Amino acid sequence: MSSGSCACHYITYTSSTPPTCLVNCHCTTCRKQAGAAYQTWAFFATDDIRWDVNPTERQSTNAATRSFCPKCGSTLRTLDEGKTQIPLPSHHIFLSEKASWFELPEDGAKRWDKFGEYDKL
User: Fold this and answer.
1) In angstroms, rounded to a whole number, what is the distance separating the alpha carbons of residues 60 and 69?
2) What kind and span of H or E run contains 15?
3) Structure confidence at residue 93 (pLDDT)
4) Residue 119 phi/psi, 5° resolution?
5) What is the pLDDT of residues 36-93, one digit of tens each?
6) pTM listed for this prediction
7) How many Å apart are CA 27 and CA 37, to the nearest integer?
8) What is the rounded CA–CA span in Å between residue 70 and residue 48?
9) Please, what is the end-to-end C-alpha distance for the chain in angstroms?
10) Is-contact 78 39, C-beta < 8 A?
11) Which residues pair with 4 in a beta bridge?
12) Residue 106 falls in which region: left (phi positive, over 0), alpha (psi -120 to 50) or beta
């Protein structure tokens, strides 16, 4: 079982399965939201997730809806450490928007310049 929460723990979730993959997104929106060079997203089968409180959602781009806690504002696709085996990130996406000061590690993850390639995940 996998689990996660917002920063203040007002919202938590559990999943009966581990995430299918982790993706590091370098788009400008994710970088601004995370306050970092990229934001890592955990992907789960939708039917496997159970929320104790439903998060607030906001359509941030044509392609993305963001879930966040209305109390602390943190995003809700981050995993809490636990006993579940968490995969290493498999992709770096939106490298066409990557922060110029950030150097990508040689981590074996696939690299995609834009969103269209992301549909093949």
Assistant:
1) 15
2) strand 12-15
3) 93
4) -60, -15
5) 999 998 888 878 889 999 999 888 777 777 888 999 988 876 777 666 678 889 999 9
6) 0.82
7) 9
8) 23
9) 22
10) no
11) 13, 79
12) beta
Lookup: tokens for 82: 């636990």
> What would the two tokens of residue 5 be?
């929460």
Closest CA to 51 of 77, 12, 1: 12
Structure tokens that stand for 68 in this block:
């966040």
More confident residue, 96 or 84: 96
Residue type, 46: T
Tokens of 42: 């955990």
Q: Which amino acid, residue 34?
A: A
Rounded CA separation 48/13 (Å): 10
Tokens of 63: 């392609």
